[in-house]
Write a structure and sequence with these properties.
Length: 107
């Protein structure tokens, strides 16, 4: 994970929660943890694979100089971007704050 959105710690905590939930039963039962580790990998891998391209696109946007172009943009285009961002903001906040597959201790 990159520092963009500050989600690395969130994902690490969610990985730990999933690992505890999935690995505790075989460890307590003195069984092999290999199947549980495979399940853990499958479960936690796809949220990371979804988040990393989003982070990369932010890196690309910020390094491209497009941020300065917003100041010289036509007013109608700037309004469209602003409206779009207002509609997307709640979804984006949830994805950044909780991740694509939030973990819970109560599962």
């Amino acid at each position: 994970m990159s520092p963009v959105f500050g989600v690395g710690v969130n994902y690490a905590v969610q990985d730990a929660v999933a690992a505890g939930r999935l690995l505790a039963p075989p460890l307590l039962g003195s069984q092999s943890t290999t199947p549980a580790c495979r399940l853990l990998q499958r479960r936690r891998q796809w949220p990371v694979r979804l988040m990393q391209p989003l982070q990369q696109s932010v890196h690309t946007f910020l390094s491209s100089g497009n941020l300065a172009a917003l100041d010289t943009m036509e007013p109608w285009r700037a309004r469209a971007i602003t409206l779009g961002s207002k509609l997307i903001r709640p979804v984006a906040a949830r994805v950044v704050g909780r991740g694509f597959l939030p973990e819970s201790l109560n599962k």
